[in-house]
Specification:
Helix content: under 10%
Distance between the termini: 109 Å
Oligomer: single chain
Amino acid sequence: MHNRNKLWVNSLFLVLLSTLFLSACSFSSQPEKTSAPDQVEEPEQPFTQIDQSKEVLQKIVGWIGEEEVLVHLGDQETQQLVRMNIRSGERHEIYSTDNFILTIQISPQADKVFLQEGSNQTMEAAVIDQEGKEVRRTPLEYSGYINVDWNHVNEDLLFISYFNMDSETAVETAEVKTWNLQSNEITSASVSAIEPKWYSSNLFLYMNEEDNGFYIGDIRSEEAEQKLNPETLNFFLHQDTVITLSESDINDDEVHLMKEYPFLVSQGALTIPKVQMGDRLQLPYLSQSQRDGMIVGSIPDEPVDLSQNLGSFSLYILNFADKSMEKVIDLPENAPIALSPSERYILYGWQYEQVIDLNDQSEIHTLVSEST
């Protein structure tokens, strides 16, 4: 019996050993699994171009989406507002009129558009949504170009301003009105400025046309506005980020840009070469698209008087916290800029007809083909 059990145990051991050996051989003989090939990213589409041999560009108004801009097209016969993707070229016409369109302004949330529309007999202000549906319309007393500033906190409020000439004295004075979209009422505002800027739902900032002072006002109050830093000569405002311009008291060829976020809370300063037009100091073209987000600017390479020559300028990303500027690319001229909502693209030019991709800073791309 003992020998039989011993034989059984030995047989079992051999079976297990054979099984393990066969399993190992089977495993080693299986082909190795090939790793999935790396997915190759498709190259991005080139920037689209507006063919000016077929249509007339008035202006690219600004950003209305991540890669989408609002385009003003037209001639003396008819004018259109078109949403256009700068990559795919996909278009959607949202508005068309036989009248002429003067001022156009996109709302802070990019969901509405203000337009000043007129003919030889009438002038009107209108607001439409992204699909072109009319939200409000009201007659205007003034027939020239107007300035518009949209309240970023309460989008039912807009400033409308222009110079009004007295027919008897021939003296121009700033005329400022508020348009309440909810009530569709336009009322006069007692502000001595041609371009007041909304800081909050009720507060606004402006440079006084009479004494060139920097002021803050409250639309709810009938009291006089409060004068702020007397050294401020101009300012840039996006939502509650304020950048003021002041002259250097050390170097006549330099100016200071000082960032405040929120207002009156200093976030640093940068010193840059001075730009002037004769005796008038010029604020650099600046742009910001997100609250307390990236700030870009067209900054001179050296001091320049634009009444004497065009100078040389470069695009910079401005970092006020560590007092540094990151150069992006040389600019052919000093012209307006507009940073996209994603902070990737920058519209550039007097018609915003060019675009700069911050992911590829090698060149400036045109969005317009030359007419033939």
